[in-house]
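COMPLEX REQUEST
Ligand: 2-(butylsulfanyl)adenosine
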Amino acid sequence: MKENKISKELEKKITVELKDLSKKISKHNELYHKYDKPIISDYEFDKLIERNNYLEKKYPHLILDYSPNKNIGSDTLEKFKKIKHKEPMLSLGNAFNDNDIYEFIKRTKKYLNYPNQNLIFSCEPKIDGLSINLTYEYGKLIRACTRGDGYIGEDVTDNIKTINDIPINFKSKNYPDFIEIRGEVFLEKNDFLILNNSLNEQKKFSNPRNAAAGSIRQLNNTITKSRPLKFIAHGIGGSSVKFSNIKQLYDKMETWGIITNNYNEIIEDIESLKEYYKKINSLRSKFPYDIDGIVYKINDIELQNRLSFVGKNPRWAIAYKFKSLKVTTKILKIDIQVGRTGSITPVARLEPVNIGGVNVSNATLHNFDEINQKDIREKDIVEIERAGDVIPHVLKVIEKNKKREKKFLVPKNCPVCGSKLLHDKDEAVLRCNNYYNCEAQLIEKIIHFVSKKALNIEGFAEKQIRFFWKLKFIKNASDIFLIKKYESKILNLDGWGEKSYKNLIDNINNSKKVDLQRFLFSLGIRYIGEINSLTLATHFLSIENFLRNAKNKKNLEDIDGLGPKVINSLVEYLNIKSNQDEIKKLLNFCEVNNYKKINTKSKFNNKFVIFTGKLLVMSREEAKNKAILLGAKISTSVNTKTDYLIYGEKPGSKLKKAKELKIKTISENEWIKMI
Ligand code: IVH
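STATUS: Structure written out below.
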């Protein structure tokens, strides 16, 4: 950029004014946010910002180190206080076609045991923004948190308070003493373009969602205030009063001054659900903000409570995503990726393209059969698709390269460790079975260990892990907790300073207290994903109990929900000494919280329970989940350990066996009364 040639004197004058502006802005900011006592109007405040921005734009070489606009994007969220959500902020399951919606309705009816009743839905656009939880006590906004990992978010109250759409005080008096309003913070498409226009190249955002997120994650809330963020509510977390349905809730919200979506509709029949999807999809480009689908939610809140959650998704709602976006680009190279559990996947390195605002330079080719069938080769022009959050994938060849490159050959050996590759017995996947020594897998395991759903060590990116591995600072996940040994070496590395090093150490320390299911997931054992980790946690309750018992197959075989593949993989893992040693090392640093049960006073707490026969009031799935919430361990076969057998119609041999073994048997009606 060309610098304005100005006299030394003028330079001095401008610097004095910038210093003065910076002081004033930070003072009024503090009065407004910290003490809630502004002494100038918003208009006057905005004028200060405007003048500051004008001078900074005109004389960029005079921008102060402590300019109110400094640190855009670099003041990252480690600085925000972590807050545990009272009610987890989970995410929606996805549907991609009408059939997925039929299936959703079918399984919902089955779960509720509602073969003939009609379900009523609240249908809503799915806004592509940032999920926020707003806590109101006695009608006053006391805290605003980001979603974070769904369980722990970050306190962004000061920034959220700058958003005009979000009332600091409810507008009417008919509010509950306590309520958590949830909704989406977003930037409209036009405002995003205007904002990006004003930012210099490195600071531009790739889409409105990132721009909204970046604006909320500012340490300096004058920046947040200068961005025209909007808010639309789409639900609640905890509340001191009950609502009967979503429609009633939204109507109430409006009276408090909380904005809900004008496009929301209450719909009863399947045909109209489809129509709603078509209508909103056709209006998509006319929406002032990005939407990536619609959401169908069971309107009745009592039914929502019965349906509850599975894994991280509510059973009472689903997102019907709009069709994916496709673009064409060139394959520069085909590489082979070795996954955490040894799976070998071909990936296409692409000439970078922008798909729906996201820059894409890699796409998966799934497996080698697919490359062959579609005859995909390096240098071909291909069509790639990105749908929702899934990894982009190559659909087909659009134009073969004239001078065709050689066919891509299926590798015989692992490209990293050289081991012979084998096909899994019952899977198409090619695998490197050198689980405990293949460098690629060891690194992937550490990357998995620090990832968001595992220990969630923020700021420890894949790139850094690979680098630390190369420098031999870390060889196992547990070495992360000993990283201080290399303090001076790290501080000497390019890109590292006191501040970033301290952040890393703080983040590592913050991750040491971890819930059992997360800890089990973080170990990266094959087939032990989020759901199986939770099943294991509800069964074993503590890490000590898990380590003592889970290595014996017979202690796993009866756990409802664990199949033989999962069991074999877990038993194998736990019976390898180096794995046991690594867990022991991790436990020297980590404090693993026992699985917290909702109700430990229940008769079913810690009891082995079996369901058999056809239940009439609730579905089997709902009954099992109720029992788990009461602390029960659900098993599949009747034996001397069984405490209760709950039977429906036509119970068959299990009831007979339970009676023989003098196990307490309970009819469905009795069970309903007991809970
Ligand atoms: S309801 C249990 N309704 O989409 C989650 N979510 O994965 C219930 N979103 O994180 C969410 N528009 O931030 C709901 N009308 C809408 C929404 C919506 C956007 C976001 C939300 C959530 C994500 C779902």
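REMARKS: Confidence is low (pLDDT under 50) at residues 71-78. Residues 90-92, 124, 126-127, 131, 147, 184, 234-235, 295, 314, 317, 319 surround 2-(butylsulfanyl)adenosine (CB under 6 Å).
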